[in-house]
Specification:
Layout: H1 10-21, H2 26-35, H3 40-52, H4 54-82, E1 90-92, H5 96-104, E2 110-113, H6 120-124, H7 127-134, E3 138-143, E4 159-163, H8 164-173, E5 180-181, H9 195-198, E6 217-222, E7 227-232, E8 237-243, E9 246-251, E10 261-262, E11 266-267, E12 288-292, E13 296-300, E14 305-310, E15 314-319
Parallel strand pairs: 1-2
Antiparallel strand pairs: 2-13, 3-4, 3-5, 6-15, 7-14, 8-13, 8-15, 9-12, 9-14, 10-11
Helix pairs in contact: 1-3, 1-4, 2-3, 7-8
Organism: Myxococcus xanthus (strain DK1622)
Protein name: JmjC domain protein
InterPro entries: Cupin_8, JmjC_dom
């Protein structure tokens, strides 16, 4: 904006109202406007007008409630740190009772060991096995991901139907790549042609509903290098790693204000290489990190932010129907 302009552009009105509502001081707001080319006297008038406007007054009251909730979230974060839960736990021999009490209801992630030893998938699954048993089955994948930084939040732009043998060949020969991936949104687990594949897994006893209908699980399959960007799910998820390893980074749900949310459930931050200049608050987040090995289950509590990168050719099964009287706990998403 030039200094000769006598009125603020609409986007600056919106910016001013939002930032005053969030508690930015008049002095700081004026400094930003002047640095953007707004004449100082105009900036002062617009700030004074905005501060007196009933809409901004009401928004400021809401902003104070937001500040209180943010302070409460920071308190949870401090208690979390004081509890010593600053690493991604790996546990063997966890009973269902302890799992639900300590992790599910405790809202804490954990890697569980020893629950997948009876899975035929652990002995049988390989790319060669998929090609031999299910090569003619048509599956949906997400393709062309590298060309679109927002591919994860725009799935309909990337859907492609292929024969499983053709997809397996791409995984075998494509090397490290994030350009193509079979993800839960593809819903291939429901395809009748993969019914025998579903028979190769078992519900973790006492934790997951043993019925295991096709709509209760999902399948992920892809090459090394596939990345799921930092995001959260609106329900609890148990991730079973069958083939390959996955590097994970997790941020607590109560640190949402530190991860710069966008598109509802996604973060603006590249968790693989955070930009401290653009996203300074992310540096205050508690980041749990670890590698999930074949035969391990990763519990992702509802609302926890997670970033995942496959280190090898990877096959993963996810569960979301827990063996509870009330079923899975969901996060209510504001409209």
């Amino acid at each position: 904006m030039s200094r000769e302009d006598s009125r603020l552009a609409l986007e600056w009105h919106t910016w001013l109202a939002e930032n005053l509502a969030l508690g930015v001081s008049a002095e700081d707001a004026q400094r930003v406007l002047v640095d953007a080319g707004v004449e100082a006297s105009l900036a002062q008038r617009e700030i004074a007008t905005a501060q007196a406007h009933p809409y901004v007054v009401a928004a400021r009251r809401i902003g104070r409630r937001y500040e209180w909730l943010e302070a409460l979230a920071d308190l949870y974060a401090e208690l979390h740190r004081q509890s010593g839960a600053v690493t991604l736990e790996k546990r063997r021999g966890v009973s269902p009772e302890e799992f639900f009490t300590r992790y599910y209801f405790g809202h804490r992630p954990v890697v569980l060991q020893g629950f997948m030893e009876d899975w035929p998938a652990m002995r049988r699954w390989s790319l060669a096995d998929f090609r031999e048993r299910f090569g003619d089955v048509e599956v949906e994948i997400m393709s062309g991901r590298d060309a679109n930084p927002d591919h994860a939040s725009q799935p309909d732009k990337h859907r492609q139907v292929v024969k499983l043998r053709d997809y397996v060949q791409r995984v075998e020969t494509g090397g490290e790549s994030n350009d193509f991936y079979m993800v839960p949104r593809n819903e291939n687990w429901k395809r009748d042609g993969l019914a025998r594949l579903r028979e190769d897994i078992r519900a973790p006893a006492g934790i997951i509903d043993p019925e295991l209908r096709p709509d209760m699980t999902t399948l992920l399959l892809g090459p090394p290098g596939t990345v799921t960007p930092l995001h959260h799910d609106n329900m609890n998820v148990l991730l079973g790693q069958v083939m390959g390893r996955k590097h994970v980074r997790l941020v607590p749900s109560f640190q949402r204000h530190l991860v710069y949310p966008r598109h509802g459930t996604f973060s603006s931050v590249d968790a693989a290489s955070p930009d401290a200049a653009r996203f300074p608050l992310y540096g205050e987040a508690t980041v749990l990190e670890g590698v999930v090995e074949p035969g391990e289950l990763l519990f992702l509590p509802v609302g926890w932010w997670h970033w995942v990168r496959a280190l090898d050719v990877s096959a993963t099964v996810t569960f979301h129907h827990f063996q509870l009287p009330g079923g899975n706990t969901h996060l209510r998403t504001p409209q």
